[in-house]
Amino acid sequence: MKTAEFRKVIYANYREAGRTFPWRDNTAPWGVMVSEFMLQQTQTERVIPYWERWMKKWPSPKALNRASLEDALREWSGLGYNRRCRSLKECARYIAEKHRGVVPGVPEELLSFPGIGPYTAGAVACFAYNYPAVFIETNIRSVFLHFFFENKTGVRDGEILPLIAAALDRKNPRQWYWALMDYGAALKRITVNPGRRSAHYGRQAKFEGSFRQLRGAVIRSLVSSGPACRENLGSRTGIAAEDLYDVLEVLKKEQMVGEEGGIYRIREEK
């Protein structure tokens, strides 16, 4: 399929069935960054109420920088992957202290921020500043697999990225990526997910009974009920002593939790 024809198909679908989200209605850079952190491995509809509450409470990087990590985790509770919250909090500090409160507008600068990889750097620059970045995520990947790799499996992102660059609407990259993502989301509802033919495809591990679930339970307990010794945390969470030890050790290494005199608490930035 030629690039012009491909764009025509994608934009036709967007005009007819494009989705609306609050971070698309308002593309202020900070709101875009918050949305990108929240949307990682989380369904879009679940994110909307969290994003709206967060932006009312902390409408700028400086506002979040003034808050405690404990407050941020309390607001984040239910989204999962709490390290995203800590990374977003650290990004707020970077922006407030090193960038005069302004989210950078080019991927190269954003890549130096905590928790930001190539996709998030490109997405924030594009959706906040209409910067013509080249990036890939699950829905974009599905679209290109569907149109350009119909009968091929084990397709690597390195094969897809040149096609993304060639098809990019450089006059309006923001809307083009919205259109691609919406088409990819629609594909998964009407056909077998093309993403399964990617070399990078992997099913998400079950949450129930996972180490991730145990981590989340410890964080929720510390946020909702305050600092505690290991024994009290075990009573609160119902986590077996050996598992709780492992969870706390990991959380300490990640600097999510601090311990002093046998008491564990959410660790604040110094």
Give a nutshell description of this structure:
By secondary structure, this protein is mainly α. The protein has 15 helices and three strands.
Structural category is mainly alpha
- Main sheet? 3 strands, antiparallel
Strand content: under 5%
Rg calculated over all Cα atoms:
20 Å
Could you please describe the fold and organization of this structure?
With 270 residues, the chain is mainly α. The chain has 15 helices and 3 strands. A 3-stranded antiparallel beta sheet has the order 1-3-2.
Spell out the key features of this protein.
270 residues; mainly alpha; Endonuclease III, domain 1; Arc Repressor Mutant, subunit A; 2 domains; three-stranded antiparallel β-sheet; 15 helices; 62% helix; globular
Write the layout of secondary structure elements.
Layout: H1 3-17, H2 22-25, H3 29-39, H4 44-57, H5 61-66, H6 69-76, H7 82-98, H8 107-110, H9 118-129, H10 138-148, H11 157-167, H12 173-190, H13 211-225, E1 228-229, H14 230-237, H15 241-253, E2 257-260, E3 263-266
Antiparallel strand pairs: 1-3, 2-3
Helix pairs in contact: 1-12, 3-4, 3-9, 6-7, 6-13, 9-12, 10-12, 13-15
